[in-house]
Amino acid sequence: MNKEDVKERLLDRRRIDENGCWLFIGSTSSDGYGQLSVNYKLMVAHRLSAFIFLDFDLDSDEQVLHKPFICKSRRCFNPEHLYIGNHGNNMRDKSVTITHCPNGHEYTQENTYRGVNGKYCKRCNKIAAVNYRAKRKSLKSRNIR
Per residue in 45-101, pLDDT tens? Predict the structure, then answer.
């Protein structure tokens, strides 16, 4: 694989946004990462960027991660927004950058409890419990079990 050719192909598919992200404007994977075919193999743009600009070994088990609080775009491949890490780093970054539950409630100390699989919203949990009780009461009044 010729680094210069790959670099040229990557940079030809770059749009720089207001945050300095180098957004990949070509094909994307099903989960939103920019991807490029190199030697008949699809590779994600941010790993190729790390290979070219950060001397990352593509055969490494390490991961190429986006720096939290700098970049949130999966299509970004700006080497200044990337670092080499591992799965633990990735999970730590993910937990730090998620500030709201899927329903838009902010994760505050009062509204959050932590479980084995991450953060949980107390407001959503309370709403679900109220809805469950109302449904059970409705079914009971109609003699449906």
Answer: 999 999 999 999 999 999 999 998 888 899 999 999 999 999 999 988 877 777 888
Q: Which domain holds residue 22?
A: 1-97
Q: What values do phi and psi take at 30, rounded to 5?
A: -60, -25
For residues 72-106, b (16+ Cβ closer than 10 Å) or e, as one string?
A: ebbbbbbeebbbeeeeeeeeebeeeeeeebeeeee
Residue 1: pLDDT band by 50, 70, 90 thresholds?
confident
CA pair distance 127, 120, nearest whole angstrom: 13
Q: Where does residue 71 rank: exposed (0-12), middle (13-18), buried (19+ CB within 10 A)?
A: buried
Q: CATH number, domain at 12?
A: 3.90.75
Residues 16 and 62 in one domain: yes
